[in-house]
Design goal:
- The chain contains eight helices and four strands.
- The protein is mainly alpha-helical.
- It has one domain (2-62, 77-187).
- A two-stranded antiparallel ribbon has the order 1-2. It has a two-stranded antiparallel ribbon with strand order 3-4.
- Strand 1 (120-122) and strand 2 form a beta hairpin.
Length: 206
């Protein structure tokens, strides 16, 4: 047993020496500030996603229309920062596609990172761990299944996070009366709000 521990310590010491001789370790004082700044920016971006999603859902609850018009809303009272930004970038092709792609890539990458760090659990029992060179084939298969569920969830998530852009984007329509008025297409309608519909929507949402 002591020999095994000594062998493990020797391997760890050799690994530390290899890392210390690497160029990546020698340049740590250069990339470390960049790493910190990037981490802060990604945290702020995640916070922006949370705030936008929260404001969008609150706005849906306040101005709920009916079950038949589940994606329609009443008057807009709360701003959705991400929806406003992506809809505005739709005027400059293809900036909106780039921003939307970065948003979806961020969600998928963070989901994968979370699964890699936490592993796969069944209630309180850890079923599989993810580590380089030691991951079981069953764990990879389970990870693939979870990724399919994540992609399906993103389809509904996009409608909640950026409702205006996902439904109409930067489209306009012309209403012809005495004069031609060009207005943006929107999912906002003016109808009364009933309490029973609001309760049903809250049950559907949560």
């Amino acid at each position: 047993e002591l020999e095994q521990k000594e062998a493990v310590l020797s391997r760890n010491e050799e690994s530390i020496k290899i890392v210390r001789r690497s160029l990546f370790f020698k340049c740590r004082f250069i990339y470390r500030p960049v790493q910190i700044i990037l981490g802060v920016l990604l945290f702020l971006f995640a916070l922006l996603i949370f705030i936008s999603l929260l404001l969008s859902n609150i706005n849906k609850c306040i101005h709920f229309v009916s079950i038949k018009h589940i994606f329609a809303q009443g008057n807009k009272t709360l701003p959705n920062p991400i929806d406003i930004i992506i809809t505005w970038t739709g005027k400059f092709y293809p900036v909106s596609y780039i921003v939307l792609s970065l948003l979806l890539i961020y969600i998928i990458v963070t989901s994968l990172f979370g699964l890699q760090q936490l592993g796969i659990w069944y209630f309180w029992v850890r079923m599989y761990r993810f580590s380089r060179g030691r991951t079981k084939p069953q764990a990879i298969l389970m990870l693939s299944s979870l990724m399919m569920f994540i992609v399906v969830a993103i389809n509904a998530f996009v409608y909640l996070l950026i409702p205006q852009y996902s439904i109409y984007g930067d489209q306009y329509y012309a209403s012809v009366n005495a004069t031609v008025i060009v207005q943006p297409c929107t999912q906002y309608v003016t109808t009364g709000i009933t309490s029973i519909y609001l309760i049903l929507f809250l049950i559907y949402l949560f």
